[in-house]
Write a structure and sequence with these properties.
- The protein folds into 3 domains: 32-82, Aspartate Aminotransferase, domain 1 (Alpha-Beta Complex); 84-114, no CATH class; 117-252, Aspartate Aminotransferase, domain 2 (3-Layer(aba) Sandwich), CATH 3.40.640.
- It has a 4-stranded parallel sheet with strand order 5-4-6-9.
- Mean pLDDT is 82; it is low at 236-276.
- The two termini are 29 Å apart.
- Helix content is 38%, strand content 12%.
- The protein has helices spanning 2-24, 69-81, 92-104, 118-133, 150-155, 159-162, 180-186, 212-223, 239-248; strands spanning 36-40, 43-46, 51-53, 137-141, 172-175, 191-195, 199-200, 206-207, 226-228.
- The longest helix has 23 residues, at 2-24.
- The protein has 276 residues and is α/β, with parallel strands linked by helices.
């Protein structure tokens, strides 16, 4: 009887969390019927105490795992010292971060724009490109995903994401991925930027074929356009830096160079990789 009561109380706790959140959330994100309450490393637990392997990883924000002692210690120490410092002031920790980023970036990349999300980074990249070139056109790839804010959404290809919010930002064009001939035809004197993923993650895993990104880079250099290669969840640890090294170091790039190799696979509707 006591075991049944504990099980009922646990189920009620989870149901209560789901009911409470569902009553006030925006509804933008479809949610699984599960309330996660804690994590450790690559494992998370729901309100019923069930354990799962976390294959989501905070969509890239928790690549070091949950409750990592070094992360917990750093966040706690900084919160005790200074909780926030906007960019209108200089800051010791921001200076260290920028210096570290410059040290691991390829030669010529000496400045960084710090922001909160991939979509915000894409928005900034579009603005930087238009401001620095005086042009307006942005070329992206079919199957590419770059975010849901208006500029990033305009670079995103899938109609399911785009159509509810049209008309979007003008000046965007989509071409087939891994097709240098299509890109050669698309880039012109009005092109401010090309934005491409090293590995596309919509509808499967689609890596750039050897020679594709260096070829696009060369076209952009010849025609005065900017090339943006935003990282995604497939580029973890030093993967993003490997990708940048491969794309942006022209002397090292050859037709046989591949920045990242992943065995392609197709998603299926009946597989939920998050759940054990």
């Amino acid at each position: 009887m006591k075991a049944m009561q504990r099980e009922f109380a646990s189920q009620s706790a989870q149901a209560g969390i789901i009911e409470q959140e569902s009553a006030h959330t925006s509804g933008v994100y479809p949610k699984r019927p599960l309330a996660l309450v804690r994590g450790a490393g690559a494992r998370v637990w729901d309100a019923d105490g069930r354990e799962y392997i976390d294959c989501v990883g905070g969509q890239g924000a928790a690549n070091l795992g949950h409750a990592h002692p070094a992360v917990v210690r750093a966040v706690s120490e900084q919160a005790r010292r200074l909780i926030s410092c906007p960019e209108i002031f200089h800051n010791d920790q921001r200076a260290r971060l920028l210096d570290r980023l410059a040290a691991v970036a390829p030669p010529g990349l000496e400045r960084a724009f710090l922001c909160n999300s991939g979509a915000e980074a894409v928005e900034a990249a579009i603005k930087f490109a238009r401001l620095s070139t005086g042009r307006s056109q942005v070329i992206a790839a079919i199957r590419g995903f770059h975010g849901r804010t208006m500029g990033a959404l305009s670079a995103t290809w899938a109609p399911a994401y785009r159509e509810p919010f049209e008309p979007l930002v003008p000046g965007f064009r989509h071409v087939p991925y891994n097709d240098l001939d299509a890109m050669h035809e698309a880039i012109n004197t009005e092109t401010a930027a090309v934005i491409l993923e090293v590995v596309q993650g919509e509808g499967g895993v689609h890596p750039a074929v050897p020679g594709y990104l260096p070829g696009v880079q060369l076209m952009c250099e010849e025609r005065g356009a900017r090339l943006f290669v935003p990282p995604n969840e497939f580029l973890v640890d030093n993967g993003a830096m490997i990708a940048w090294q491969g794309v942006l170091q022209k002397k090292a790039a050859t037709k046989n160079y591949s920045a990242l190799t992943i065995r392609p696979y197709e998603r299926t509707d009946d597989v939920e990789v998050f759940w054990r």
